[in-house]
Each structure stands twice: as C-alpha cells, then as structure tokens.
Amino acid sequence: MNPIISQWLDDLQNAMAFLTRLPVPSRAGLTSSGLARAYRAFPLIGALIGAVIACADLLLLRAGLSPMPAAALALGAGMLLTGAIHEDGLSDVADGFGGGRDKAGKLEIMRDSRLGTFGALSLLVAFAVKVGTLAVLPRSDILLDMIVIHALSRAPLAVIAARMAYARDDGLAVAAGQPDARTAVASCFMAAVIALLCLPFGAAIRAMLVVAAASFCLAVLAQRQIGGQTGDVLGAAEQVGEVALLALLSTQA
Q1: pLDDT for residue 32 is more than 60
Q2: Where are the chain's structural domains?
Q3: Can you give the pTM of this predicted structure?
C-alpha cells in the first residue's frame, strides 16, 4: 500500500477511536505520535459526526416530531456517539476559570470530575443555543450545515495544540501529543475544503472567519487564565466554535 494512503488510514482510525465511542481498532495504536498526526483527520471525523446528528434530526422530523424535541434528541445522539468528550471539556473549563483563584487552583478544579455551578450553566446555555438554532435550520440545509459545523469546529484544535504550550505536564492533551505546523495546516485545509464544497462561497468564508475568531478568543482566555492549553481547553474550543457556527448559519436560514 502507498505509504501516504497508509498514514491517512492510520490517522482516520486513530481520530475515530479518539473522538467517538465507536469500537474502532487502531491501526497504529493510540500512541502520542500517532494521535498528534491524527489531528489532521479531526475535521473528516467531525464531518461524519455532523452527518449522523443531521440524519437523526431529519429522521425524527420525518417521523412527526416538532423541530425542538427532534433537535434535542439528535444532539443527544451526537453526545452518545462522542461520549460528550467536548462537552466535558467545556464544563471543566467553565468551572476552573470561573471558580479558581490562581492557575494552580483553576487547574485543580478542571481536573475534578465533579460538575460545578459554572460548568452546569455553561452546558445548559450551550445546549439550549444548539437546540434552538438547529431547530430553525431549513430541512434542506440541515445535513450540509451540520457537516460543515462539525468539521470546522474541530479544525482549530490542531492549531491550538500546535501553537500553545501545555498548561500542565500531564493530562489528555499531553497524552495526545503536540501536532506540528504541517498537521495544523492540513487540518484547516481539510475543514476549508469541506466548507467550500457544502456551502455557498460567501457563507463558507463567513463560517471559517467565525470559527477562527471564536477559537482565538478561547485561546487568548486560556492563556490568560492558566498560561496554556489542556485537553479541556481543546474541548471547550470545539464547543465554542460549534455554538458560534450554529448561531451564524441559523441567522442565514
């Protein structure tokens, strides 16, 4: 097999095993080096996740459910598929940044598996926004919009992981490894291609700018709060991008 094709197959399976709960065997093993390179495949797996959520929503709508409960159930199915890995990051970041007094305190709270007030509120607000915005998307747009949203929202993770220092010496981000610049560029390129294929040119450019701005703001906040990135920060970045993109595309519906 061509070495390039083999590497991409490794990356796709590693990304699938890392980002979802599907029983996918890892071709190369979930090593730091394998996961670091697999960041470039995150948008492709994100597109698949978005397609699953969209199909669930459309099936529920076709079965007669109204848009709001259909959206809620479809998003719930998406969280089952991913193990709510990104939502967990968002809640931990909200608890840590909102409740800690200094870097050490914030990181300690983020490591705590218990859900605090800030974390619960962040999940509530994010889920409410996602349900409300998904519910107003035209049926004809749901599939392509959700593919773009979940591809684009995962692309900045490689950039943040590549550019920002670790805030601590252990944790999910450290275990995954730090991608290089080429991996980050490849991730962004893949997401951009998906967006340009699925959306009109102007809408795709606006979506890319919005997710870039949302991720940049989250990265700046993390740098000021804890001096770097963690796995929770990456999860929060995905959620912020997802919410921002859903809000954007719902206004264009």
Answers
A1: no
A2: 3-251
A3: 0.93
